[in-house]
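Just wondering, does anyone understand these C-alpha cells?
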Amino acid sequence: MSSSEWREVKLGEVCGIGSSKRIFASEYTSDGVAFFRSKEIIEKAKGEKISTNLYISENRFYEIESQYGTPQTGDILLTSVGTLGVPYLVRDERFYFKDGNLTWFKDFNDELVSVFLYYWFLSKYGKHQIDTKSIGSTQKALTIDTLKKFDINLPPLQEQKAIAQILSTLDEKIETNNKINKTLEEMAEAIFKHWFVDFEFPNEDGEPYKSSGGEMVDSELGPIPNGWEVKEADEIANINIGKTPPRAIKECFSYDPNDIKWISIKDLGNSGVYIFESSEYLKADAIERYNVKVVPDSSVVLSFKLTVGRVAITVGEMTTNEAIAHFNIESGSQLSKEYLYLYLSQFDYESLGNTSSIARAVNSKIIKSMNILLPDRSRLREFSKLVNPVFEMIKEKSQETIELKSIRDTLLPKLMSGEIRVPIDNE
C-alpha cells in the first residue's frame, strides 16, 4: 500500500459546511431542548459537565429540525470565533447551537469519514490550517468560505475508517476510565459525608452513631461526636505556599519534562484527584535561587487565590505558584491524605471571608488557621480501610489514562501523515 493512494482535496468538496438557523434571544426558554454556544461545546469536547441555562422549546426545535435540520450523530461542530478549532463529534443527543461562533460539518460524501475529520482537526495538520487561514486581529475567526478551502490529505475510505477506529478505541478507554474515577470519587465523597458531616458512622453496635443517640458536644464547627477535636490547619499539617520566580527572567522557566514540575490553578483544574502533570516547569537553579518550596510526594494542594477550593494530591515532587498552598501530613500522623483531600474538597470556603469576593479575601494566614475536624484515631483508621483502596484505584486509572493519551497523541500525527500505515483487509 502506497501513500500515493492518498488524495488532497478541498474540505468543501467532501462534506457540507454551514451554520445554524438563527435563534433570537426572545426565543430562549427556561427548559426544553438545550441550546449551546462555543462555551458549552468546548466543555462538551473536554468531557466536562455542561452548565447552560439556555433552551429552546420542544415545538421550536421540531420546527427547525423539519425545515433546516439539526445536528445528527457523526456530525461535527467546530468553534469558529475567539477560541478557534475545538471540534466536537456529535453523539446520539438532542441540542441546538448558536449561529456564527460554531460551524456545522455534515452530509459527508463517500470520500470522507466524519470521525477521521474529527481527529484531523485535532492533529497538527488541521491546527496548521486553522492557524494560517483564520482572519481578524482582535478576535480570530474562521469563515465558512475559508473552511471550504481547507486542504486535507485523504487516505482511501477503508484506511480512514481503520485510523478512526484505532484513535476512537483509545478515546473510549480514556472516557471509560474517567467515568470509573468519577464514580469512585463519588463513592468516597458519599462515605465521607455520611461519617464526618452527618456523623452516621457505625457505632460499637454497628448502628448509625448520631441517629442512635451518640453523644455530641459543642465545638467551633457546631456539634461533633464526643472525643473528636477541632484544630487549626497548621496544627495538623506542615503548610507552605508556592512561589513564582520573576517572569522577566525567562531562563527560570521551561517546558522540558526533565525539569521540576510547576503547577498552576489551571493545572489543578485539568487534573483529577491526583495531579501528575504541569504545563510549565522550573529550572533547578531557579528553585534554589528564589527559595521556591518543593512539594513532597503525596501532599494535598489547595488553590486559595483567584479560584478558591481546587484540591489535588501530588504524585512525585513538584512546585507550585503562590496561589496554591501545600499540606504535608507528617509521617505517623493519625490524619491521612485521603481524609484531608475529601475534607478540603467539601469545605465551605465562603466561611473564610466576609467580602463579596472570596477569591480576594483569602490569604495564607487564613488558610493556615482553617478549622479542621479531627475524628478519633479508631474512626480514622476504619475510614482509611474503606477509602484507601478506592483512592488507589483512582490513581491507577489516572496513570493509565495519561499513558493512553500519550499513545494517542504520538499516533495521531503519524497516522494522519501516512508515516504509520494501517493494514487494510480488502476481502
Summary: The longest strand covers residues 102-106. The longest helix spans residues 377-417. Residues 116 and 164 are 5 Å apart (CA to CA). The chain has a mean pLDDT of 93.
